[in-house]
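RETRY 2/3 - previous attempt timed out on the joint model. Re-submitting the same 542-residue input unchanged.
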Amino acid sequence: MSHSFDQALQLAWQGEDLFTGLTHPAWANMVGPYGGISAACALQAVIQHPLSLGEPVALTINYAAGLADGPYQLKARPARTNRSTQHWVLEWLQNIDGQAQVMMTATALTAVRRGTWRAQDLPLPEVPPPEAVPPVLMVGQVDWVNRYEMRVLRGHLPEPMDGREQDSLMQMWLRDAEHRPVDLPALAAMTDVFYPRVWLRRAHRVPAGTVSLTIYFHAGGQELAEQGQEPLLAQARSHDFRHGFFDQTSQLWSRRGLLLATAHQIVYYKE
Amino acid sequence: MSHSFDQALQLAWQGEDLFTGLTHPAWANMVGPYGGISAACALQAVIQHPLSLGEPVALTINYAAGLADGPYQLKARPARTNRSTQHWVLEWLQNIDGQAQVMMTATALTAVRRGTWRAQDLPLPEVPPPEAVPPVLMVGQVDWVNRYEMRVLRGHLPEPMDGREQDSLMQMWLRDAEHRPVDLPALAAMTDVFYPRVWLRRAHRVPAGTVSLTIYFHAGGQELAEQGQEPLLAQARSHDFRHGFFDQTSQLWSRRGLLLATAHQIVYYKE
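RETRY 2/3 succeeded.
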């Protein structure tokens, strides 16, 4: 278990719905860990919990505060278990200035999924193959961005940041930098990979951070395993920027065109 | 306070983060209340709580079980309060067979919103005005549908249900049947107004029900008040139907073209 992703996802079961974990420097963001790694930890707790039923279908995580570097508690409680679905409530706690503080909250849905009629109405966009696009070099950025190989097709960080208004659409081929195969926690982490859409839309850098992220898992663990280490196509755009918050909708497809996950977030921004 | 919406939103504060409420027959669905009225009650609890800060920005509600007709407890706890944002955790409880059971869970984000740069990249679709479209008559349906005036532009319930595959897109002008002005709880309720997309996409009726709903409020209370009693344009579509779950994305615009709310849900279906 040498990959930093698996290290960051190490949770120790303490009984009574409680896990303990440790922030990992390789996944550090400006303040606290990368949002995607916290989403992955939420899934990991749900998957590892002794009462866990089925596979993740939906996750909503709320970034109430940036975790401080160091140990944290993660409570994961199955609030209700039905015949084939299970509803989870999660809460991250840290001792700050001698007080237990809530740092993040989440809810999750797991289910025993069954074969049904199926249809995918959001096809893989027509884009050049990953081999035709060079990976972006990210020097001097926050740590976590180096955990990914990003081959940007559209929506590069504007250079110069000259205030010209732009479309907010970004498309890239995305892969773990060390080619770790994608499982459900890794897929969750990847949905938060896009830099703030407001920077692209405005070609202007302002303080911004995700406050709430909702992920729907269309693929199950078996389908993901079949994708192996191939890059995924990651796409994101925003629809509305107003009164300090904007939305973001994103999709992740396998190289072969299977829609793996869709995600939505609401992001705080200043000015 | 004669409107059934306001009656259904009557919550009695019991102290210690606890409200009590009562299901309302006018908002009944097949099993338990209409999902939208529960979303509205969640917002109402957050707004009425004595520690409430700012206005709703995001809400995720998880329909773990259908509420039984009658009284329920609604716990609404401000898990973390920052300078201008607040994170809420909610839980509905009912005594079933002598046991307290969790029926639904939710998280919410409220914020003191400030003026910032703004842009709306999702314009009102070009559609005929509401006056040009007759309202749909809904006889013999579940109760709650009669609370709305729906002028369907596209995506009528297929007739006959002959299994022809269809697009899942629906558009309608939507208004409270008694013309109650739209406030934030009413807006929340309206995001769940669409019949299951799988019925439209397949032209085939199968058991289906929303399991998790996430709403982003782009408009604030003041902007909503300015819309008055005008109909809203409501649009919804799905992207993926697989292994017993499909997604749904919806938008609500004011008649004048302001994007008021976007919402996403994951819906269980059979067969």
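Chain B touches chain A through 63 residues (CB under 8 Å). Closing ticket.
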